[in-house]
Amino acid sequence: MILLCAHDQKVDAVSLRIAPNRLQFFEYESVIFYCEDAVYWEVVHNSKGKINSCSHTNQGKAGSLCIIKSVYPDDSGERWCEAKGANRSNGINITVTAGSVILESPAVPVMEGEAVTLRCRNKTASSNFTSNFYKDGAHVHSSSTEDMIIHRVSKSDEGLYKCNISGGGQSPESWLSVTEIETDHSSEPSCHIYLILRNVFTLMMVALLLLFVGLLHFGKLGATAN
Description:
CATH superfamily of the largest domain: Immunoglobulins
Number of helices: 2
Protein name: Ig-like domain-containing protein
Largest sheet: 5 strands, mixed
Organism: Oreochromis aureus (Israeli tilapia)
Radius of gyration: 19 Å
Order of helices and strands: HEEEEEEEEEEEEEEEEEEEH
Keywords: Disulfide bond, Membrane, Signal, Transmembrane, Transmembrane helix
Strand order of the largest sheet: 2-9-8-4-5
CATH topology of the largest domain: Immunoglobulin-like
CATH class of the largest domain: Mainly Beta
Helix content: 10-25%
Pfam family, one: Ig_2
Shape: globular
InterPro entries: Ig-like_dom, Ig-like_dom_sf, Ig-like_fold, Ig_Fc_receptor, Ig_sub, Ig_sub2
């Protein structure tokens, strides 16, 4: 039944995940790419091929990991997981900017009915500004905070989003992808349980990966101090 549920929800056998879970990054930020449920797969860039800029890599039964400690604008582009003789995974298209504003939006498709937060983030971390959000070029929301919250996302919310900050600049554009729920009453309870367990597992993996990057970062600082 779980296999049926995974098929109904169009879940890839191998999935590319990213931490933090967003599509835009400031220059010099750290990024983790993780091929979930994959044995000896590699993270591939659409124009560069196999990623050789990983600060740390790990390949094993749980998945394949690539950590980039500092990203640059030329790291922008689509990435996916790939193995010889196998289909490629889903793709994640990131944008790295040297600018002062980014839009934080989910890197992977969100399910209909979920709550989604879009965040207009200023590199200088100032909180005294107005954020304006745009979808497909049209203004859709203004906020005195960083956030635009879609409480129950639907397929009609899918599109190309960007934001700007009054006096602070504008972000690049990123695509928000929404997955429609395919109702199958015979497998609906099992599907619900499967999705909950899968999301919990993914959150645990992301937390562990972020902890790992933090330990690497502090270790690097300690070595520099010595």
